[in-house]
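Quarterly update from the structural biology core.
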Amino acid sequence: MPIVDRAQEVQGSIFLLESKSSDHRKIPSDHIGQLSDPQDMEEKTEDSFDQFDVSQMSWSLMSLSQKSVHEMYSILIGNGKYQSALDFANRYGLQKDEVFKSQWLQSPKGIKDINMYLTKIKDLSFVLSECGEKIGPTEDDMKALLLHGIGVSNQFRFSEEENYDSHIWDFRIARLQLLQFRDRLETYLGINMGRYYIVLIFFTF
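Predicted structure, tokenized:
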């Protein structure tokens, strides 16, 4: 069947073929009554397909659509077929960040999700943004999210050999924000859990 072989060699193309045969083989009605066992029916059906003459078949190309590798990759991610998207990325040497980003955005954003998705994303701007803007479902999740962002930003600490690259400064600003958020969270939790006390001092004259 050369037409099918050629179709497989055209990457990114989707073929819809319609098959027709001039020889429709059916099980005679008098034989059906003799088949008391479903297994016999299955064997008879398989025999009829084995006797099918492929040379009598004709193929018609009903439709043809062509997608680029990146378009197919986006379609897989958009449809939530993440494992297929990862396999597709491995096959064509694509960046996997988009798969992990989509999985992260669809997740509850707990500790498990941080370890499974966020830690695998190489886009540091995206990671730091998510750590500073998203809210975890629990106190521990929120702490883990902030700590992950701070850990990622450790490489952008101030040093004696200053780097005035504006891109580096964007990461440093994000780091300062994460540190502030962590301190605010600790203060908030401390007040509500009784770790901190407010002392009121009254002055009399």
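The first strand starts at residue 13 and ends at 21.
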